[in-house]
Amino acid sequence: MKVVNIHEAKTHLSRLVDQAAKGVAFVIAKAGRPLVKVVPLDAPEASQMKRLGFLKGRFEIPEDFDDMGQGEIERLLREGQ
Fold first, then answer.
1. Any residues with CB less than 8 A from the CB of 12 and at least 6 apart, and which?
2. pLDDT tens digits for the chain (81 residues)?
3. How far apart are CA 53 and CA 72, in angstroms?
4. Per the CB 3.0–4.6 Å rule, which of 24, 36, 62, 65 could disulfide with 19?
């Protein structure tokens, strides 16, 4: 997330607000310390945002996942030499 100091925020307020309205949130800081976060009014609340793990139990990772395609990768690397 972009962090701008107060002076930069005052100088470029119009542009920053336009970006925030399009969904590009930013933080205003004073002396490097974050003070406020600017987000669009229609931004979802933290409780409404989807969390990691929402697909838990919907699919399984194969046991050989880390080795999948290993032979093909080695063959392609040998052919490229």
1. 4
2. 899 999 999 999 999 999 999 989 999 999 999 999 998 888 666 666 666 777 788 888 888 888 888 889 999 998 877
3. 31
4. 24
Q: Return the domain boundaries, the chain.
A: 1-40
Sequence-separated (6 or more) residues with CB below 8 Å from residue 46 = none
- Rounded to two decimals, the pTM is 0.52
> Distance between CA 46 and CA 22 in Å, rounded?
18
Is 66 within 8 Å of 40 (Cβ atoms)? no
Structure tokens at 19: 């970006």
| Domain 1-40 coded CATH 3.40.1620.10 | yes
